[in-house]
Design brief:
Shape: elongated
CATH class of the domain at 171-270: Alpha Beta
Helix content: 40-55%
Strand order of the largest sheet: 3-6-7-8
Oligomer: single chain
CATH architecture of the domain at 171-270: 3-Layer(aba) Sandwich
Distance between the termini: 65 Å
Largest sheet: 4 strands, mixed
Structural class: alpha+beta
């Protein structure tokens, strides 16, 4: 087999690039070739020949990304447009259309994604697009009069004066009750470990806000002989600091705010000692 010299290869590359710059293959010929090739499958022998011919040769796009190479970016954009069109026109269908995942598969997916952000799971660009779509959907469903709670604020709210609801996955078997967060669950374990009897969110107090409206406030814990306690990791996130209003309007109730620093000190001492501690 005759081997082309590097000089000859370079001339071929230059001529191909020049041809592409000056127009390349006409669109009608491209379409004709695509129509002829559509639905055809490459034989196993042909795949093996191509594989053998390319063995030892690095791919032209190795190490290139859409951020660093214009050709890669255009290829990705064109492929994405084509795939979207084919899905839209029914030429392509999802491989798992009509199929249900087993519980085992769901558990595996959940485990791989647990504790990760959208950016870590799908990348920064896709995460931003996903968040925007999610935001638009939620706005359409719950904005203004579409919101089932529209016009039912304050005392008109059916949950007024009641503790916040818990998600179905927030039950802690070792505590035998729900918790809103792992910090709260860990603090309950700390109380039990130190032989302190407590109740979790046992009572909701009605507070009068500065604007005259009323709201409910449920302290996290009632600890025997110590009174009410509120675990607040991020005090500055709350515009209305209900625990401060609670102390003003219920001065006879004993109250302690468990700050982030205090919780972290407890965690340092007990996280490797107390069973089931959540990190």
């Amino acid at each position: 087999m005759k081997t082309l010299s590097e000089e000859h290869k370079q001339k071929i590359r230059e001529s191909v690039l020049k041809w592409n710059r000056e127009g390349g293959m006409p669109p009608e010929i491209r379409k004709r070739i695509a129509d002829n090739q559509r639905g055809r499958k490459m034989t196993k022998e042909a795949k093996q020949k191509i594989s053998q011919a390319n063995k030892g040769n690095a791919a032209w796009n190795k190490g290139l990304t859409k951020e660093t190479d214009e050709r890669i970016r255009k290829n990705i954009e064109n492929r994405t447009k084509t795939i979207k069109r084919m899905y839209r026109e029914g030429e392509l269908k999802p491989w798992n259309l009509g199929k249900k995942w087993s519980q085992e598969v769901k558990d595996k997916i959940s485990l791989t994604r647990k504790g990760k952000t959208y950016e870590e799971i799908m990348g920064k660009e896709k995460a931003q697009e996903f968040k925007k779509k999610l935001s638009d959907i939620m706005k359409q469903r719950f904005l203004g009069k579409s919101n089932p709670m529209y016009g039912r604020s304050g005392e008109l709210n059916p949950h007024f004066g009641k503790p916040a609801a818990h998600g179905k996955n927030t039950f802690r078997d070792d505590l035998s009750h729900f918790c809103h967060s792992k910090w709260e669950a860990n603090y309950c374990r700390y109380l039990l470990w130190t032989n302190k009897r407590y109740k979790y969110e046992p009572k909701t107090f009605i507070l009068a806000l500065p604007d005259g409206k009323k709201t409910g406030y449920t302290p996290d814990f009632f600890v025997e002989n110590e009174g009410w306690q509120e675990l607040k990791g991020w005090e500055n996130r709350s515009e209305t600091k209900k625990w401060e209003i609670f102390q003003q309007q219920y001065p006879n109730e004993k109250f302690e705010l468990i700050s982030r620093d205090k919780y972290k000190n407890i965690e340092k001492l007990y996280k490797f000692i107390i069973p089931n501690w959540e990190i």
